[in-house]
Amino acid sequence: MHGLGNDFIILDNRKGQIKNLNKLAEKICERRFGIGADQLLVLRNSRKADFRMQIINADGSEVEMCGNGIRCLAKYIWDNNIGSQKLTIETLAGIIYPEKSGSQIKVDMGEPLFDGNDIPIRIFLKVLRFLIMIFSIFRLIMIASI
Hints:
Layout: E1 2-3, E2 6-12, H1 21-29, E3 39-44, E4 51-57, E5 62-63, H2 67-79, E6 89-91, E7 94-96, E8 99-101, E9 104-106, H3 123-144
Parallel strand pairs: 2-3, 4-6
Antiparallel strand pairs: 1-2, 3-4, 4-5, 6-7, 8-9
């Protein structure tokens, strides 16, 4: 299934029978030798909402939320008649309330974050290592030119 260019594999794991989903995502999301997708969306049971959505990237890492993904998961739930018209879905980012709007599905993603300090990123360490490497090379050049 796809939503605005993001493509997903949806897996109904409400019975919890399928284990090691991160490795599974790496294998089946791989585009050359698997089905191919951006993310694996796992439908689970929830104690806080009607359902819980686990989102696993193609590299096996887990993320809090995907707007296009939750719209696709809501469509899957409604198309398969496994949820009511008023739907709540638990995510790592909180409870999301998808709504039908004609043939479209919309979700309120909340206020966007624009302050870089509020946006969690993993690239910081890579950038820091890169800067240290550049500084070390520059230092060696300066020493060699003396």
